[in-house]
Amino acid sequence: MNARAARTAAATGTSRLLTRPMLLLLMASVGGMGGFYLLLSVLPLHAATAGGGGVGAGLTTGAMMLATVLAEPAVPWSLARFGHRAVVGAGLLLLGLPSAVLCLWSSFPLTLGVCLARGVGLGIVVVAGTALAAELAPPGRRSESLGLYGVSLGVPSVLGLPAGVWLSDRLGFEPVFLLTAALTLLALPAVAGRPARRATRGEPLSGDPDGRKGDPGGRNGELGGRSEDPGARDGTPGGPLGAAVNRSLVRPTLILGAATFASGVLVTFLPLALLGGPSHLAVVALLVQASVAPLARWGAGWWGDRHGSSSLLLPAVFAVALGTAGLVRLESPVMVIVSMVLFGAGFGAVQNLTLATMFERVPRSGFGRVSVVWNLAFDAGMGLGAVGFGLLIDRTGYPWGFAVTAVLLLAVLVPAWHDRRYVQAEAT
User: What is the secondary structure of 56-86 as a DSSP string?
Assistant: First the structure.
């Protein structure tokens, strides 16, 4: 039986995706990410209208992503030292409660401080959740399990991104700040279902001590249940750095970073770029993009378990680039909406495909490190996109800024094509 047939046979098995631990993980993720997305486009608006302009708007997202990137490498150690309940609970509180402070005092430095606190909370929630979703996957369905987890991250964006902009326009910023705090507090009970014990070094998050449950024969990852370090095959060091310099992970990491660079641009500046245009166009555009992305992420997971995750990377990157290029026509509502459909489909697929590809290329003991590297690339790209675009548009304006972003994305087609060649060569 060839590799593709083996994947298909395993993926069509009867193992359940929605176990109780997975349901609790999804509940905590929905609440936490609801608080994240509700303010994602609101805080840049808040900063810009307070006199920060485009640079200030970009700095809010950039500060949050900087804190996320700095916090993420410490998350696996924190989980092992203090346990999931304490660490993830703290992450949820940091995502939501600081925003309530802005109801009492409002200044640009304080807004940046809130963004920094939210960034730390985000780093905790996504790193812990990504690794746990991979560990909880049944045999042969890891990519689909990651797609389901991706839906729990994406569904809040469907409501949160447009709702935050709409509510702030109708009611002002303060009710949105309070709603954000309430959402993350409501997610805390789901954290009680997380493992409370402290993990030992190299022990899987799901309590699978030998690293083989759900991966008979070790084929779900390339080394399956073997406990060697992810860099062992090519001599790279251990720890997050080891995963980062593993040569087989470089291209997926670069592709993800470029896609999230564009995402940071869109969620930060699209509402500002469409100010003065047709009523509610920004809300509808964000809703469309946020609705399409989780569906594409889950669909890419279904495809990846049956045909290999790398096979869709090239068209997914092209869709992201094409969707970004379409925003050059900001005066056309139809073009804006079509662009958001393309961007959402490509961006959702890129998220799942790169994550599943990276998990396939390390042993199970390296899942935590891959989660850190993937999330670092995601958040660094988003932060750089927001800050870089904010500096760019003061000189070029929005249409040219979106055009430059699209050209950068087209350049990433090269590593996507090489990664596909790499997988084909490995298969032969």
Answer: HHHHHHHHHHHHHHHHGGGHHHHHHHH-HHH
